[in-house]
Design a protein that fits this description.
This protein has about 250 residues and is an alpha/beta fold. It has two domains: about 100 residues, FAD/NAD(P)-binding domain (3-Layer(bba) Sandwich); about 140 residues, FAD/NAD(P)-binding domain (3-Layer(bba) Sandwich). It contains seven helices and 17 strands. It has a four-stranded parallel β-sheet, covered by helices on one side. A three-stranded antiparallel β-sheet has the order 6-7-8, with no helix packed on it. Strands 11-12-13 form a three-stranded parallel β-sheet. Strand 11, helix 6 and strand 12 form a beta-alpha-beta unit. It is elongated, with a radius of gyration of 21 Å.
Length: about 250
């Protein structure tokens, strides 16, 4: 059947590596190759803790090559730009073409900026441990600014909470954390009692919630504009955005 090629070495990819590693005899000599744009696996659920200074980046990273070698697999660094299912070939951005017998796509997600080019160039995202370190460095450098977190899902709530905790630990009185969410409430997929619990705790951390608001524009340096559902416009100073997620599509 040919070699097994896996695009993406995130949580799903590494889980697959463990499963295949336990069933090496069933692979009948087929090689397993992972393709990923990074040399490390970054544990995404803990990235907000890095952004808030509660964890070091090295505590949420694992080098891919040694881990995958222990599972009997190999890894190559690259970005997939095309998949030819007829020829059973994967094309990489650097010009390499890799053949496969079985293809698994486990690319994960990346930050969704919803087509707002100014946001993409000026706002912070949280896709990797390096992104988390960059955000942490910005919080340390400007603790007295207003931090706007866009997106009231799991990641946005965690970022807002961790930044607010950092400001509390360092007794920063002027710093402000704002959480903007387009839906009627944060964490809309959770039961009401869990959302209530999160709102209470965010309030204790002095995180200001702005439901039914969407990001309209980010100014070059300092102004973030958003619209309420009732049409009211409010200007927010300084930007620290973590928008929603979209599927990473390499094809």
């Amino acid at each position: 059947m040919g070699d097994i090629v896996v695009i993406g070495a995130g949580l799903a990819g590494l889980r697959l590596a463990r499963i295949l590693g336990r069933r090496r005899r069933r692979l009948e000599g087929r090689h397993v190759l992972f393709i990923d744009a990074k040399d490390t696996f970054d544990y995404l659920p803990a990235l907000p803790d890095v952004a808030g200074g509660r964890l070091k980046a090295r505590h949420v990273q694992e080098s891919l090559a040694p881990y995958l070698e222990r599972q009997g697999a190999n890894v190559t660094r690259g970005e997939v730009v095309r998949v030819d299912t007829d020829a059973k070939e994967v094309s990489l951005a650097d010009g390499r073409v890799l053949g496969y017998g079985v293809l698994v796509i486990a690319c994960g997600t990346v930050t969704n900026f919803y087509g707002l080019a100014d946001v993409q160039t000026q706002a912070f995202k949280l896709d990797t441990a390096n992104d988390a370190v960059a955000l942490y460095d910005a919080v340390r450098a400007h603790p007295d600014k207003k931090f706007v977190v866009v997106g009231g899902g799991y990641t946005g709530v965690e970022i807002a909470g961790n930044v607010a905790l950092y400001l509390r630990r360092h007794r920063v009185k002027k710093g402000t954390v704002m959480l903007v969410e387009k839906a009627e409430d944060i964490l809309s997929t959770l039961p009401e009692w869990m959302r209530d619990y999160c709102r209470v705790n965010l309030s204790r951390l002095k995180v200001a919630l702005y439901p039914e608001c969407s990001l309209a524009q980010v100014g070059y340096r300092e102004v973030v504009e958003r619209h309420r559902a009732d049409g009211c416009r409010v200007d927010l100073v300084r930007r620290r955005a973590a928008a929603g997620l979209r599927r990473h599509a390499p094809l």
